[in-house]
Amino acid sequence: MSERAMGLRRFYHRLRGVARPPSAAQPAARPAGPDPWDMKGVNVDFVRHLTSVMPHQQAMEAAIGGGFEKFGPIQAATLRHYGLPRDGYLIDVGCGSGRLAGPMSQWLEGRYLGIDLVPDLVAHARKLADRPNFRFEIIDDIGIPEADGLADMVCFFSVITHLLHEQSYLYLEEARRVLKPGGKIVFSFLEFADPSHMPVFRDTVKEARLRARHPLNVFVERAAILAWAAELDMVVEDIRGGLEEFVPEGPQGQATCVLRKPL
Asked: Domain holding 121: CATH number?
């Protein structure tokens, strides 16, 4: 089981506590499941638990799924591969604890905006990428705190994977709004067509049986992405499988989609 999955399981059992055994006359009530629209509450609680059971640095890495040193450079290379200008403006939605912001701070000479729901993660990312051209914001709900038509690229790494389809669409709508004409959205996603993603689904099913309060794991099929792109008037520039190696740094694990805003 992954470190993240183990952390989620410990988190659930801590929240549940020790239950009194039910009487024969009164069946046990199932624990309430998470509210999928309470994104901030669920994520803040999850990170708070991790920081209570492990060292801070380890918790900051576990909170975004681990692989901090490995996947940050892969994500940065992915954005360069798809044309992010070195002097461009990147918006990193769900920046977490700075897995992408760290390597980007060593390369990007333009502007960067990182946003996330969890204050502890944003504080860690801000320390990791403390540069005058880097800005970090704490958000409370779906939205990008930026004016229309300014960004060269908006990325969502391991974000769409934790949202309902409606929430993903609303975020893509926001990303389109803040993009320049010709700007791009790059996002990662889980799909059933990729056998390597199935362990995530199996773990998610196990947690669903327990009604665990933790961030969702949501799969998106390519047909849905094509439908969203058409509805948003975006061009599907590329879709890559999770194990495809299209940058020298290696595969990302999750699938990758690139949408382009028409000129």
From this structure: 3.40.50.150
Mean local confidence (pLDDT), 120-145: 96
Q: Is residue 92 situated within a structural domain?
A: yes
**What is the DSSP code string of 58-115?**
HHHHHTTTS-HHHHHHHHHHHHHHTT--TTSEEEEET-TTTTTHHHHHTT--SEEEEE
Q: What is the pTM of this model?
A: 0.85
| pLDDT score for 75 | 97
32 vs 129, higher pLDDT? 129
DSSP string, 170-218: HHHHHHHHHEEEEEEEEEEEB-TT-GGGHHHHHHHHHHHHTT--S----
Q: How far apart, in Å, are the Cα atoms of 226 and each of 25, 88, 198, 223, 258?
A: 52, 27, 22, 5, 11
pLDDT at 211: 79
Total tally of structural domains belonging to the chain:
1
24 within domain boundaries? no
57 falls within a domain: yes
Partnered with residue 92 across adjacent β-strands are 114, 155
Measured N-to-C along each axis, helices 165-178 and 222-232 cross at an angle, to the nearest 10 degrees, of 40
Tell me what the mean pLDDT of segment 198-205 comes to: 93
What's the token pair of residue 24? Answer: 């024969």
Residue span of the structural domain in which 124 resides: 3-7+36-260
